Structures are given as C-alpha cells and as structure tokens.
Design the sequence.
C-alpha cells in the first residue's frame, strides 16, 4: 500500500473538511490531486500538524478536521498525542502514514522501521480510545469510513511503502496558503451562521 | 518569595480585557494563579500542553479559527518552542501573543534558571521578536492589550516578559 493510494481514496472526503497535512511527500500527493482552499500544508515545523488540528477542532466545533501525519513527525512530538487525547476533540481524525522512513530527507530509517516502535500502541497509551492500525488498502478504507462516521477523536496508523512523488513544488506561497486557509474558514463560518 | 496573588489577578484581568478567549499554557510557578483563573473562567478555553512547542501549533489553529488566543509559558518553554515559532509562525505570518515568565533574571536565587534567563533577551532579538518587560501592575493590562494588537497587525510573534517585580509579591 502506498500513501498516494490512501490519499487518493481519502480525497473525496476532504472536500468539506479542514485538512492539515505535514510536509514533503504527503503534502505534495494531496496537492497533486487538486488544491482546495480548505487544505493547509505545514511545510516545516515537524510534529505540529496535530497541534494545529487540535487548535482548529477545539475552536471550530462545527467543522470536521482531518490531520495527515507521518511517523517521523509524530515521533518528534509524542507529547502532542497525549494533549490531543486529553482534550479529545470529537471532530478530529488523525491519520498517521507510517512508512518507517524519513523519506523526504533522504530515506533514513525511522524508529518504526524495525517494527519495535508501535505508534498505534503509543497512541492508545496516550489515551486515544479509537485507534486503528491498517496495512492494506481495504483496511485503510474501512478504518477511514469508521473514523469519519464516528463522533469522536480517532487515529489511524497506516503502514505504507516508503515511496513518494517524483517531483516537488506547489504554485502556492506559504503565507498565501495561510491567508487563504484562514479566509476560507471565516467564509464557511459566515455561511454557517447564515 | 510567593507569587503575587494581586498582580496575578491584574494580569488575568488584562488578558480578559484584551478580548482573549483562548489560552494555551504549560504550568509554571509564576503562572500558576493565572492558570487557575483561566481554568475556572467559563469564557476562556484553556489548553494545557505537554511541551510549549505544541502551543505554537494550537495558537495557529486558534488564529485560523478566528479565536483570540494567548500563549502562557516560561522562558525555558519559549526556548523549547523556537522551531515552531520560526518554521510555523514566522514562516507563514501567523501572529503569536506570548506572555513569558522571565525566570533566571535579576534577583534569581535558583541556579537552574539562570542560563535561560541570561539568554532570553538575546534570543528574542536574534529572532526579531518584538518584546517589552512587564514590571508595573498599573500598566500591565495595557501592555497585554497592545501586545495582542501588535501581534495581529504585524502577523508576527510578540512577547511580553513577566518580570519578578510583577509576579512576586506578598510573602
């Protein structure tokens, strides 16, 4: 299973949700399917995607938040799993693509490569109740359907191959992404309030 | 020396008067009374983090959501949050209004606070983060309001350093 396949499967569900993705391959694969104003690409600051998601989820209870994360990023900020668990936003789903590799920076093995570090177990231990660990496209699809339908914090660890796109680049400056994402949220709020 | 109950109350009122409705924090001795008040205030969402860098992400989320947010941290927490400040807030133009307990400075009796205290101002300058010292309870409310306003207009991190003069008081 590749991350690109998973993101492709997830993409239609992202149309009406606020999506925060980590840097590099994950961001590129989402962007290549078609940028939307409700997507925010965190192109640096590894480990903070779920913290941004938490900030969005707690302050926008009527929005649904999807965080696309990775093993390298989650390992940089394990405490964030505990913080997310503590505040348990019902409207947030965190998907951790675990390719066992720091792919975007040269493909060095991450701590999950050998199978010793189990991110799903860490997430459960942090206090997240609904955690799924999947390694097939079908399993991923089912876990996503469950998580998106569930009115509770959910986390999915998806074991994926350490492969990424053959190109990088976006026609979107970083502050531009932030400005437009914020504007998109305020317009959705205004629409919701009629 | 005990933390000043009266001045903590004044600082908290300053936060309220600035229109802040969301606060992220990592508990710290000087900030303890502020956190208690934030926790008990129905109009404030308090989010406690495991490490201060998380608060930079949470603040970005709150900003995107349109919620006035303030970060409470110790200066060592600020030092621990620098990559988030640089590579999220400054890179993307996201405002941060940080109230930072300035430990390890004039009058500091504890050796473990001193290195962080000595470098805090230099690090703020190196990062281009505008800062002020809050020493006087009579003007701290205005300083908080102005820090928040400036963070929003400059789309930048801004720091108000809470000093010993302000935070320690009644024995």
Sequence:
């Amino acid at each position: 299973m590749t991350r690109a396949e998973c993101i492709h499967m997830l993409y239609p569900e992202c149309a009406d949700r606020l999506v925060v993705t980590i840097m590099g391959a994950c961001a590129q694969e989402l962007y290549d399917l078609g940028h939307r104003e409700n997507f925010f690409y965190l192109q640096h600051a590894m480990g903070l995607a779920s913290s941004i998601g938490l900030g969005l989820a707690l302050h926008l209870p009527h929005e649904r938040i999807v965080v696309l994360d990775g093993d390298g990023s989650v390992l940089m900020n394990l405490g964030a799993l505990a913080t997310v668990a503590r505040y348990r936003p019902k409207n947030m789903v965190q998907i951790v693509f675990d390719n066992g590799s720091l792919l975007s920076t040269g493909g060095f093995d991450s701590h999950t490569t050998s199978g010793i570090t189990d991110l799903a177990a860490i997430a459960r231990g942090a206090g997240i109740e609904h955690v799924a660990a999947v390694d097939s496209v079908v399993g991923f699809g089912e876990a996503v359907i469950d998580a998106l339908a569930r009115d509770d914090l959910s986390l999915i660890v998806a074991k994926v191959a350490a492969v990424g796109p053959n190109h990088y680049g976006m026609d979107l400056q970083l502050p531009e992404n932030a400005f437009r994402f914020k504007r998109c949220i305020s317009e959705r709020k205004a629409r919701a309030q009629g | 020396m005990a933390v000043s109950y009266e001045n903590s109350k004044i600082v908290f009122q300053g936060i309220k008067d600035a229109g802040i409705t969301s606060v992220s924090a990592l508990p710290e001795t000087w900030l303890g009374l502020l956190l208690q008040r934030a926790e008990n205030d129905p109009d404030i969402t308090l989010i406690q983090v495991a490490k201060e860098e998380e608060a930079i992400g949470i603040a970005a989320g709150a900003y995107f959501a349109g919620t006035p947010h303030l970060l409470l941290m110790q200066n060592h927490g600020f030092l621990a949050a620098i990559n988030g400040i640089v590579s999220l807030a400054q890179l993307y133009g996201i405002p941060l209004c940080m109230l930072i307990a300035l430990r390890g400075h004039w009058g500091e009796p504890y050796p473990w606070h001193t290195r962080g205290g000595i470098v805090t101002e230099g690090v703020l300058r190196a990062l281009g983060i505008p800062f002020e010292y809050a020493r006087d309870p009579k003007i701290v409310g205005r300083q908080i309001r102005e820090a928040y306003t400036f963070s929003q207009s400059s789309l930048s991190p801004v720091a108000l350093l809470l000093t010993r003069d302000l935070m320690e008081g009644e024995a």
